[in-house]
Amino acid sequence: MQFKFLSKYFPPPQFLKPSHIGVSFSDFNIKAISFDKTSAKPLLKSEIVPIEKGSIVAGNIVDMEEIVKKLSVVRKNLNSQFVFFAMPDELAFVFSTSVLVGSKGDATESVAFVIEENVPLSLSDTVFDFVPTKIVRSDLEYNASVVVAACVKKELEKFIEAFHRAGFEPIGCIHESQAIANALVPKNFSGTLSIVHARRNRVGIYLIKNNLVYFSTLRSILDENYNKQFLDEYEKFLDYCSRYDVDKNQSIESVLICGEFEYAKKILEAIMNSTKPMKDVKLSNVWTNVFEIDKYLPDIPYEKSLGFTGSIGAILSEVV
Q1: Cα–Cα distance between 256 and 184 in angstroms, integer?
Q2: Are the C-beta atoms of residues 21 and 15 closer than 8 Å to each other?
Q3: Does residue 120 form part of some domain?
Q4: One Pfam family from the UniProt entry (predicted)?
């Protein structure tokens, strides 16, 4: 099951699914990677391009010229025209809800009615998509459980403009948390787990059910006491899941950690030493859905690969 997230912005010919690079953004750099996802031993090319401080702030492009300049470096070094990118977590809202749909109704309209109840944006400022997870019929109506991904429209359009100006043809976009899930969670996974995405200035925590991100939370982290600030958010996340999103038969089975290696290690240590430790908590294998790690050793060091999760997941996301 895949999001058709924001596909109206990317109308390639239906018969054409060109190979593309994956790109993700942070407030400090742009990460890009390319590989043939159909190959058992793909040739990997990667690029980390630092950006000037203040060029991206909390996921928002502030200095367009700097971002275009650095994307042009990516375009030149990876030598690819097509790109699929991950929209920063800071700009996306992911939530699950239920809506009523009449027998002749439009589910999109029903979801639109609940957008403003769940995100701090007006409907006119939002681009959204959704995936139905359960549909129950009663009389002439259907009750649909859906997972919704909503994004700040004007900020998305800045990224699209930057790519075009740098010589790229953007063919797709997905919110960062789902891109990361696409990279880390095995395609045939059935169950519930959480993912922690660690960076030096913030941590993302995601609830995953059957490969789909149901809920995500983001916490800005100050320089001091990284572990304590993370655990504060992590315990709130677990409390939310136990109350609203995870029943007794679908408890969180494991925690996968990715992101910047230095901070991913801090997260691992924090969870293992917390009052609510998990039996199965580990640093991730970002190549889970690319190749078998025991049969092929990539030339990207493991510590470095953890930071490319969003970019890898962008490549693995399907073009609609």
Answers
A1: 8
A2: no
A3: yes
A4: PilM_2
Cβ atoms of residues 168 and 160 within 8 Å: no
CA distance 199 to 317: 22
Mark whether 190 and 65 lie in a shared domain: yes
pLDDT 10s digits, 143-189:
889 999 999 999 999 999 999 999 999 999 999 999 999 999 998 89
23 beta partners: 32, 85
73 belongs to a structural domain = yes
The answer to whether residues 59 and 113 belong to one domain is: no
Alpha-carbon distance of 267 to 227, in angstroms, equals 7
Q: Select from 104, 103, 124 the least CA-distant residue to 112.
A: 124
pLDDT recorded at residue 297: 87
124 shares its domain with 269:
no
Q: Is 249 exposed, middle or buried (0-12, 13-18, 19+ CB in 10 A)?
A: exposed
Question: What range defines the domain where residue 80 resides?
Answer: 7-90+153-316
Contacts 24+ apart (CB under 8 A), 41-45: 41/291, 41/296, 42/290, 42/291, 44/298, 44/299, 44/300, 45/77, 45/78
Residues 245 and 122 in one domain: no
Across 99-103, 190-194, 219-223, 232-236, least confident range: 99-103
Which CATH number do you get for residue 222? 3.30.420.40
Q: Cα 95–261–251 angle (5° rounding)? A: 40
Q: Is residue 147 part of a domain?
A: yes
Find the helix packing angle between 226-240 and 261-272, rounded to 10°: 60
* pTM confidence score: 0.90
